[in-house]
Amino acid sequence: MNVAQQIHDLCKTHTSLSDEDVDLIIEKSKTIQAIADIAQANIFIDCPVKGDCNVIVVAEAIPSTSHSLYKGSVVGKIIYERYEPAVFRVYRTGKPALMNRAITHEGVHVNQNVMPITNNCNKTIGMLILEKDITAQVRHENELAILSETTEEFSRTFFDLISKDRIIPDLIEEALVLLRADGKIMYANNFAIGLMEIHSDNSLTSCDYINRPICEMLPFIQGSDYLNNGVIQREAIDKDKVYILRGIDLQNKNEAMRILILRDITDLRDKERQLMVKSAVIKEIHHRVKNNLQTVASLLRLQLRRGVPDEAKVLFQESLNRIMGIATVHEVLSYSGIETVRMNQVVEKISKILVNNIQNDLCKVNIQLDIEDIELSSNQAVSMALILTELLQNSVKHGFVGYEEGTITIQLFVDTGQVHLIIQDNGIGFEHQSDTEHLGLEIVRSLTNYDLNGMFEIERVSEKGTKAKVVFPIG
Known about the structure:
- By secondary structure, this protein is α+β, with helices and mostly antiparallel strands.
- Helix content is 45%, strand content 27%.
């Protein structure tokens, strides 16, 4: 059923509109989709049902680029006055009703604009309704109202406390000062009095500070701390002390006041500075370890270039690669200054270094990376760097004998709290009987079992290729 026929049937069944009036409603309905898209709002046409007690929705339009206010179509729904009084007011008066609030029958708060649809006799035969969801706005207004009530209740409670029982404010571990609107002191607890005594060089009584400007008693307080409205928070420095200063407006009867709260955070800032120094020291240590390892690697390369027996060249190169793998971890740590390592950086660096160092002249080896950005502790990172080095060496050296080109895929991801490292090549495949002959695989197995408390598997994949998998708990 098309829209025009649906409107015609609803009007004839539920309303007393004439054929001319129904045709006018149908004509108006042709424009509501464009209005909905422009206004980004739901548009409806309501018509009065027989007896003029309620209205019925005969047409609707939903914005093409946003969701509807309603779970389903509301065409054919009867609308009651208690939910949408503006619609009925427009029907009775013939005058537009703009920016009215209503609650839909599904409980959604909406902003509603209602325009009358009149016939040639200037009689209202329907209402064009624009509705926008204001649920978030209403929620925010309710939260503000609750906050206002809470602030007033806090003000009353606070004034009761300082007028009836001065002990409670003095138990607060912050300096607390109550000011008039002009910045003169009405009340100060013991911590605040202690601060003021530091600047006065004398012990104070209430007569010494009551009705005195706060900026005279505590020179580090600025005018903006008590003259500006609303809530303020900033760090205030007084000699060798650091404070967090908070300002809050209070209302007591007809008098506006402000409460200032100061918390001493000197120890916290000192600890932060110590941590920064320690972080810099740790970065320098990792930097020097990396440099020392690279120096050892340079000595090994120098020895290789000067000449070593052929049977020792492989051992020299493997040792060189292991050293460079560990150096890579310390290089990353020297940048971050923290004891966690982003393993995507380590994997990328090690794979590039190893393939360049042990690339087979007769075979081009490509590396494909599928790695997540995982952070590991420095201890786990070093073990994993060695494992990656050994497994890559194994694939490049033994996996592509007789091949012109090969591919090694490295996967790194976390699943249910377990780190998964998978290295797979498309070479000749792994032979189980040679497992115990490889020192590299023994290193991988020992590091996985004892350092990482994990599991190591290596297997032949189908008819060609080798897949090595290391799984261990993160942390």
